[in-house]
TrEMBL record:
GO BP annotations, alphabetical order: DNA replication, removal of RNA primer
Organismal lineage: Eukaryota, Fungi, Dikarya, Ascomycota, Pezizomycotina
Family per record: Belongs to the RNase H family.
Protein name: RNase H type-1 domain-containing protein
SUPFAM superfamilies associated with the record: Ribonuclease H-like (SSF53098)
């Protein structure tokens, strides 16, 4: 970090603060406009190139550079001494900025409250526990459920029934993959828009640091699972598989063997890629089952969600929509092969 009297000269000859690239920076307590060779007359009115809201949109748009999609060893999250803490205000579990043995007031340092410098996206890390459940796995009576835990009382937590399909029953592996997909969907569809609003409002309080606030948007997501299958699929196995877009299947690069659950694996990969397009990097962490109890509880609860039977034609889900089970039974009656 530079000092207030440590300017940097740009290619156009202007001086800016070293840390934020601004001519007038209240955070660094400096003003380098006095040295500008291009002085504007006080009688001249400088036209605004865009409105305040347009300016915000422009800055936030620049703050979402695509980040790299990690695979192999790079996609495996390795703890380095930091603990995690749940923030009631943003309903998320964040990696603590400091090691566990350093006392801190977490409410004042929660990364979503923009306390970290814009360049430290690696320290803005969310932990999300995921799990799938499948009572009767391997039988025609199997029922799939998924659980996603963002924290003890998070508004983003999920407990869902996957489907009941007598022709192609769900499996535990499919349940685990679908849990990962749903977790990433929630981050992309619900949390990212909320974060953009938070940053936009923050700009109102510090308009001279729009770029600084906007650089606070990127962050990392660590999906925590006790499934060795899911962990290996999304890290090391993707390196030895080839995706066939025509047939919508993964195959082993050497043997050519078709990979089971290709549809669900691809769904998870696509969600990772979508988030990377907004500057959000996804990593994976394998933990013992006892460290994933809440996600496991939510997944098991999902399998017990009641479905309402509607005569002999099928079922309705708890929201009143047609469930996958109803679709499967309907297709069976027509002699068609139900979807997985």
């Amino acid at each position: 970090m530079g000092f207030p009297d440590t300017p940097v000269e740009l290619a156009n000859g202007k001086l800016v603060c070293q840390d934020h690239g601004l001519q007038i920076c209240h955070q660094c307590c400096c003003d380098y406009t006095f040295d500008s060779s291009e002085q504007v007359s006080s009688d001249e009115e400088v036209p605004s190139s865009s409105s305040g809201e347009d300016r915000k949109s422009e800055v936030l748009s620049r703050a979402e550079p695509s980040t790299q999609v990690l695979t192999g060893a790079a996609a495996k999250f390795i703890p380095s001494g930091q603990s995690s803490q749940y923030c009631e205000e943003c309903s998320l579990t964040w990696m603590s900025v400091f090691p566990a043995d350093v006392p801190m007031v977490f409410d004042e340092l929660c990364p979503t409250h923009d306390s970290l410098p814009g360049t430290r996206a690696d320290q803005r890390t969310i932990f999300v526990n995921i799990d799938g459940a499948c009572p009767g796995n391997g039988t025609t009576h199997a029922v799939g459920g998924l659980g996603v835990s963002f924290g003890p009382s998070s508004i983003y937590n999920i407990s869902e029934l996957i489907h009941r399909n007598p022709r192609k029953p769900p499996t535990s592996q499919q349940a685990e993959l679908k849990a990962a997909i749903r977790a990433l969907e929630v981050i992309r569809e619900k949390y990212l828009p909320t974060r953009r609003v938070t940053l936009s409002l923050a700009m109102n309080t510090c308009p001279c640091h729009e770029e600084c606030w906007a650089r606070g948007l990127p962050f990392r997501v660590v999906l925590v699972t006790d499934s060795a299958y899911l962990f290996d699929c999304m890290t090391s196995h993707l390196l030895i598989w080839r995706w066939d877009p025509k047939n919508q299947l993964y195959s082993n690069k050497k043997s050519g063997k078709i990979i089971m659950n290709s549809k669900h694996i691809r769904g998870a990969v696509e969600e990772v890629e979508k988030l990377a397009g907004s500057g959000v990097q996804v990593l994976w962490r394998k933990v013992p089952r006892e460290l994933n109890e809440e996600a496991d509880r939510l997944a098991k609860a999902g399998t017990k969600i009641e479905v309402k039977k509607t005569g002999d034609s099928g079922y309705l889900d708890e929201q009143g929509g047609i469930s996958d089970g109803a679709l499967a039974l309907g297709m069976l009656s027509l002699g068609l092969d139900p979807p997985i």
